[in-house]
């Protein structure tokens, strides 16, 4: 059905804002520095943006691109653009000019909103953006107008604060397009539909335990899976968004204290930075801070370190193609009395499907048969359900491959435990096959994170004439420490089967995405330059 009736209504996350504006008109909806806006003001600004876009000829089926950090305009775009039936394309702010140009052109975007800090990336490629006819400057850090187009507040002033009709008549209409990182080729545009965004936004709040009294800090990029759908979910509850332009541990702890932050989301590398800063500055949280982490399997040590300063960690798992998190390490009360180490080990698992997701399994990718629930046999994680993407924009071949066998193929290798909890062992391309033995890089990394002198680590396969490939560890040492390669290798041999220990160790910074995920593919490419690596 595509039209509302007495017993059916089109699901769209845009509708959450209308309800909260009616229920909580005077409640603080958005905080950003000294800026405070109520839900009524938030809704009026969204209507202004929507009507101003319509006045520029933007409507149903069109695309609107935003290059913007976690500031109010980025949040407003998540409502105004899909409200008029268009699709929001929120772009990774750490991409190069050519990558941005590719995404803008590939998505067929007609309007482009650019924060001043990133205008320097757009200027050189602006002439290449053939379909863009409207450019808007978001002047947050300065009043300069580097691009030919109006300033954001000026653009809003040309709109009308009166309610704008929601032009969504089909739940499977495209709401947003999120481009993948393109680690194995050009970025692919993941199409989110209104139904999936609505349900996953609700699912996030169910699993995270947020409420109308929650204060949510934006440490997770809104451009990443639309902020795991929290852009819509926090609004659905009438909770408070606290925008944050730059994710710096000192600023995070400052705002947590000043604004009474109750919840935030972050990749494990952000948690490492937070726990290190807290340790160095003797910080102990005054009240429990709920943190959802995903983006990479967190080491149990990382979880334990954060919980020691007063946080409670919820581990979730997902991908861009499934609207962000799809599963949660659902806590069981019988685990409450376990030791801190045992609890952190359990919390590091990827868990069970969300209530709104339901369908997830670990299978042999060739036969599509489930692997034994023994916690040892590896297979591929597959998913299906309402929060799976429509497909890749203008890429039917990639879509067909991803949906082989009627499931979405994650590319992640995992085991299924007897209690039906999933645990990731590796990405398909990261698993090390050394002399015929499988070595999980995640398992090796988890051991290395227990080393007292290691801050961050990534393990990748490197070529070896005898074994085919062997593990190599790239290590960031803690400040005021100087571990040696020999120390680290010996530590692994004491805590792992000896053949799993790294054969080589290299010290230095690790390449990361804008969400803090370590880019292992860059380390791999460096080690395998000029050689062919066979990956199943």
UniProtKB/TrEMBL annotation:
CDD domains: ttLC_FACS_AEE21_like. SUPFAM superfamilies: Acetyl-CoA synthetase-like. The keyword Ligase applies. GO terms for biological process: fatty acid metabolic process. Keywords: Fatty acid metabolism, Ligase, Lipid metabolism. Residues 19-393 form the AMP-dependent synthetase/ligase domain. InterPro entries: AMP-bd_C, AMP-bd_C_sf, AMP-binding_CS, AMP-dep_synth/lig_dom, ANL_N_sf. One of its GO terms (molecular function) is ligase activity. The keyword Transcription does not apply. Residues 443-517 form the AMP-binding enzyme C-terminal domain. It holds the Pfam family AMP-binding. Belongs to the ATP-dependent AMP-binding enzyme family. This is Acyl-CoA synthetase.
